[in-house]
Structure to design on (582 residues):
C-alpha cells in the first residue's frame, strides 16, 4: 500500500516576519552595545543566558534528528525537517561563542584571570582543565565537530529530497550513533564550561544531564511551535496531524518529568550531604529575592506543565499544546537565568530591558536562521523511504 | 478436594455467553465489518484479534477507558498517604534526629512519597484492569484456535439488541467472513 506523496507546500517568509526579526536583531545589538558601555559584566551575562538557551535548542534539534535515525523511527519523518531547521542556528551560535571567548570571558569567568587563579588554591588545582587555552580548544573542537555532524546528518537528508537514494537512510544510522556518543560527552563539558564555571569552586557531576533535560524540553517545545506556526499558514496539511502533535506532546511531558527528576536528584544529594563546598551554590539561590525564582522552577517548570500535559486531549489540541510550549520555553529561560545570574547578583534577581532585548536579539537571529532554512528546503523529507509510516501515523493511546 | 477445584474453576470461568461468531482472514475486513455491525445497531459485540488493530476502537465505538482516572486518583492518594506517613513516622510517632536534620525534612521524604505515588497508581491500574476485564479467566471457550495466530473474529452475543441469527449470518458473509458459526465466548 503506497500513497502518493503530495506537495507539502512552500513556506515563504512574509514581509512582516522579516521586519520582525530584523527589528529584534537591531534592538538586541543596540542594547548589547549600550550594556557593554554602561555595565559590561551585566551585558555579558545577559548575553550568555540566551546564547546557552538558543545553542541548546540548535544542538537539541541535531540530537533529536540523530535519535530518529538511530532508532529508525518512522512516525517522525514528517516532523524531522523542523528539528533539522533548528540546527541551522549552530554557525551563529559558534560566532556568539567566539565573542564570549575573545571578549566576554574576562567579565564572566574568574578563572580567565591568571592572578585570580594564582591567589586561589582551588582554582590553581582546577587550572589544568579550567584555563583559557584549553577552554578555547574545547569550544572550537565542540562547535567544529557539531558543525561537521550537522553538515552530514542534515545535508544528506536534504540530498535525499533530490535523489531519493534509500542508502542515505541506512548510512545515516551509523553517523547518528557517532553523533549521539559525541554529543553526550561534549554537551556535558560545554554546559560545565559555559555555565557551571561561572562559580568555579562549585561542582556537580549531574550538571550536564540537568542542562540536557532542559535542552530536550526546549527542543520539543520549539518543534511544536514551528509546526503550529506553519499549520496556521495552511501548510503541511495531510502531513502533520494531531497524532504527530500527540507524540511530540508525550516527549514534552516525559522530559518535564525527567527535568524534575534530575533537578531534584542534584538538589537532594547536596542538601543531604550538607558539605559547604557544595551547598554554597544553593544558599544564595534560596535566600532573598532568589527564593521566589527557585520556587517558580518547582511550580512552573514541573508541577504546572505536568498537570497541564497529563490529559490525552491536552497533547492533541494544537493551540493548547502550543501555549504550554511557550510556557515551557519561558521557564527554560528562567532556569538558565537561575543558573547564571546568582553568580553576579547574589542578593536579588535583576531583570530589565538589557535581559529582554538581548534575548530578543538572539530570538531574531534564531527566527532568521530557521525561517531561511525552511523557506529554502522542502518542509517534509518527501523522499524518505519511511514517509509512508509517518503519513499514516496513528496513536492509539 | 476435587469438588473445591471444580468450584474455583467455575468461579474463574466467569460468565460465558452464547452467540454467533464470524471469522476473517484479513484484519482490514474485520475492521470494516466491525464498523458495519455497529452501524446495524449492535452494541455488546466483541472483536478478537491476535494483535492490536489500528482503528478498531473507533470502528466498534469503544469509548475511552476510565482507568486513567483511577490511576490518577490512586496516585494522588499514594502521594498524600506518603506525605502523611513520613510525617507521622519520623516526626510524631518515633522522632529521631538523623544527620542533624529537622524531624520532618521534606526533601528526604520526596523519594518515598514518589515511590508510593507510583506504587499506588500502578497497582490500582492493574487491579482495575483485571477486575473490569474479568481476568484471570481460566479455560475460556475457544471460538477458533487460529484466533491467537492469524485469524480474526467478531462475536455477537444472543442478548444484544436486535439479535437475529439469520440476519447476522448474512451480514457476516457480506463482510467477507470465511466462516460463521454458533459459539460461546
Amino acid at each position: 500500500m503506497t500513497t502518493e506523496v503530495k506537495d507539502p507546500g512552500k513556506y515563504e517568509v512574509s514581509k512582516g516576519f522579516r521586519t520582525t526579526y530584523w527589528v529584534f536583531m537591531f534592538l538586541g545589538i543596540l542594547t548589547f552595545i549600550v550594556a557593554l558601555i554602561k555595565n559590561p559584566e551585566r551585558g555579558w551575562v545577559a548575553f550568555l543566558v540566551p546564547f546557552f538557551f538558543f545553542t541548546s535548542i540548535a544542538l537539541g534539534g541535531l540530537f533529536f534528528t540523530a535519535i530518529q535515525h538511530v532508532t529508525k523511527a518512522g512516525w517522525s519523518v514528517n516532523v524531522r525537517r523542523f528539528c533539522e531547521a533548528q540546527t541551522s542556528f549552530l554557525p551563529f551560535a559558534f560566532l556568539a561563542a567566539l565573542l564570549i571567548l575573545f571578549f566576554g570571558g574576562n567579565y564572566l569567568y574568574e578563572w580567565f584571570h591568571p592572578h585570580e587563579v594564582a591567589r586561589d588554591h582551588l582554582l590553581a588545582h582546577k587550572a589544568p582543565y579550567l584555563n583559557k587555552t584549553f577552554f578555547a580548544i574545547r569550544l572550537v573542537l565542540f562547535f567544529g565537530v557539531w558543525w561537521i555532524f550537522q553538515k552530514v546528518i542534515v545535508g544528506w537528508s536534504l540530498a535525499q529530497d533530490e535523489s531519493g537514494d534509500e542508502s542515505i537512510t541506512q548510512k545515516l544510522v551509523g553517523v547518528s550513533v557517532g553523533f549521539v556518543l559525541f554529543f553526550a560527552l561534549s554537551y556535558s563539558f560545554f554546559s560545565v564550561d559555559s555555565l557551571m564555571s561561572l562559580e568555579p569552586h562549585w561542582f556537580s557531576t549531574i550538571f550536564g544531564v540537568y542542562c540536557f533535560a532542559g535542552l530536550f524540553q526546549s527542543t520539543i517545545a520549539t518543534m511544536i511551535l514551528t509546526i503550529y506556526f506553519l499549520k496556521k499558514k495552511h501548510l503541511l496539511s495531510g502531513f502533520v496531524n494531531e497524532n504527530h502533535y500527540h507524540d511530540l506532546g508525550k516527549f514534552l511531558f516525559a522530559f518535564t518529568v525527567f527535568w524534575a527528576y534530575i533537578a531534584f536528584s542534584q538538589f537532594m544529594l547536596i542538601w543531604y550531604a550538607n558539605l559547604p563546598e557544595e551547598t554554597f551554590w544553593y544558599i544564595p539561590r534560596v535566600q532573598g529575592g532568589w527564593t521566589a525564582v527557585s520556587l517558580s522552577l518547582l511550580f512552573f517548570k514541573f508541577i504546572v506543565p505536568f498537570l497541564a500535559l497529563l490529559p490525552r486531549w491536552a497533547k492533541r489540541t494544537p493551540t493548547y499544546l502550543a501555549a504550554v510550549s511557550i510556557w515551557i520555553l519561558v521557564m527554560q529561560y528562567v532556569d538558565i537565568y537561575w543558573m547564571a545570574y546568582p553568580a553576579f547578583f547574589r542578593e536579588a534577581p535583576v531583570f530589565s530591558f538589557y535581559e529582554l532585548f538581548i534575548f530578543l536579539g538572539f530570538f531574531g537571529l534564531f527566527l532568521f536562521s530557521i525561517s531561511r532554512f525552511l523557506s529554502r528546503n522542502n518542509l517534509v523529507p518527501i523522499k524518505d523511504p519511511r514517509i509512508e509510516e509517518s503519513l499514516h501515523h496513528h496513536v492509539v493511546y | 478436594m476435587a469438588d473445591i477445584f471444580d468450584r474455583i474453576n467455575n468461579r474463574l470461568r466467569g460468565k460465558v455467553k452464547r452467540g454467533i461468531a464470524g471469522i476473517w482472514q484479513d484484519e482490514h475486513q474485520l475492521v470494516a465489518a466491525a464498523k458495519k455491525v455497529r452501524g446495524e445497531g449492535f452494541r455488546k459485540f466483541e472483536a478478537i484479534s491476535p494483535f492490536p488493530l489500528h482503528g478498531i476502537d473507533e470502528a466498534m465505538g469503544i469509548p475511552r477507558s476510565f482507568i486513567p482516572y483511577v490511576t490518577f486518583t490512586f496516585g494522588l492518594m499514594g502521594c498524600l498517604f506518603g506525605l502523611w506517613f513520613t510525617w507521622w513516622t519520623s516526626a510524631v510517632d518515633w522522632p529521631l534526629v538523623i544527620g542533624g536534620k529537622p524531624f520532618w525534612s521534606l526533601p528526604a521524604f520526596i523519594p518515598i512519597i514518589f515511590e508510593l505515588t507510583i506504587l499506588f497508581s500502578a497497582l490500582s491500574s492493574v487491579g482495575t484492569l483485571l477486575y473490569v476485564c474479568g481476568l484471570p479467566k481460566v479455560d475460556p471457550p475457544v471460538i477458533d484456535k487460529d484466533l491467537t495466530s492469524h485469524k480474526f473474529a467478531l462475536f455477537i452475543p444472543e442478548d444484544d439488541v436486535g439479535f437475529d441469527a439469520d440476519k447476522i449470518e448474512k451480514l457476516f458473509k457480506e463482510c467477507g467472513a470465511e466462516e460463521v458459526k454458533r459459539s460461546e465466548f
Observations:
- The radius of gyration of chain A is 21 Å.
- Chain A is about 75% helix and 0% strand.
- Chain A has a mean pLDDT of 93.
- Chain A has one domain: 15-380.
